[in-house]
Amino acid sequence: MKRNENKRSGSRSAAAYLLVIAILANASMPSIAQQFFAELVASKDDSATPMGTLRVSEGKARIETAALPDGFFLVDSAKPAAYFVRPDAHVYMNAMQSSPLTHMFVPVDPDDPCRQWLAIAQLSAPVDLTTWRCQRDGAETVGGRNTDVYRVAAPSGLSFIGWVDRARRFPVQIKTADGTLIAADHIHDGPQPAQAFEIPAGLRKFDPQTLIRQIQQSDVWVAPPASE
Q1: Total-model pTM
Q2: Is 212 a member of any domain?
Q3: What's the pLDDT at 208?
Q4: Is residue 198 part of a domain?
Q5: β partners of residue 84
Q6: Among 165, 144, 55, 147, which Cα is nearest to 101's?
Q7: DSSP reduced 3-state for 67
Q8: What's residue 55's pLDDT?
């Protein structure tokens, strides 16, 4: 009798162990699925232009562009924060409006991507919520994967349409206000190096406002004429 009880107890323990393993495996899937590397390609009027590369890992994105080859952008939607890093110059700075890519290619909550897009937009300047709108506009298949389509209406030509891949928790395609389609192309899912999403040690933060104040206090500063 004891032998049978021990066998049943062992079977229950093995089943419980397998259940825990299955739960842990499923729990880790969103994190793994969100890590990938891709090329950014812009298309308009039947012509395609490589823009740079994109790396994504667990709420962070690294964007490298051909237009700014001496640095890269880091976006952290959890903080939120967006920086432009220039390793050779040993400085980094707030991205502000230096690239519209940092406002659009942002790791998001697939159930509410508008929240992250708004938070990143507010890093550059206060957002007028009476003119900023974001809403879901259906679903489409992009690259063989299901995506949710969102329309963002923003002032100063910053409106766009984003196709959010729920599994990757990221907009894999953006259409800007001028009709340019920017896509994350040739996506390779897989772990990304952690150091790629960190500001290298030893870099100092460059504050353009501090530089402006220093110039204003120097002998070369000429105050603008007072408006009449």
Answers
A1: 0.77
A2: no
A3: 66
A4: yes
A5: 73, 93
A6: 55
A7: coil
A8: 98
The CATH number that applies at residue 44 is: 2.50.20
Q: Where are the beta strands (DSSP E) in 80-159?
A: 81-86, 91-94, 133-142, 145-153
Cα separation, 157 vs 144, whole angstroms: 30
Tell which residue, 144, 192, 147, has the closest CA to residue 34. 192
Structural domain containing residue 162: 31-204
**How many residues are listed for the chain in this entry?**
228
How many helices and strands (H and E) does the chain possess?
4, 12
* 220 within some domain: no
Output phi, psi for 193, to 5 deg: -65, 130
How many domains are there within the chain? Answer: 1
Q: How confident is the model at residue 210 (pLDDT cuts 50, 70, 90)?
A: low
Within-domain flag for 200: yes
Q: Both tokens of residue 225?
A: 């004429």
Alpha-carbon separation of residue 124 from 46, 49, 52, 81, 101 (angstroms): 32, 27, 22, 10, 13
| Structure-block tokens of residue 45 | 């009027």
